[in-house]
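>> received
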Amino acid sequence: MDPCELTASVTALANIIACKLDDDQLALIASVLVQLGDTLTTIIAQKALCDKS
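>> returned
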């Protein structure tokens, strides 16, 4: 999958999710996904540091 296909897929998924949820549910899922992304970033950064040691 090239970058344009990936971003188009993510946008389509976001639109599908947004159509199914009310504003409160959408705010919650958005914050959960942000936390997931941040946690994955922390994990990969820690792995990179451990691999350098």
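>> Helices lie at 3-20, 23-52.
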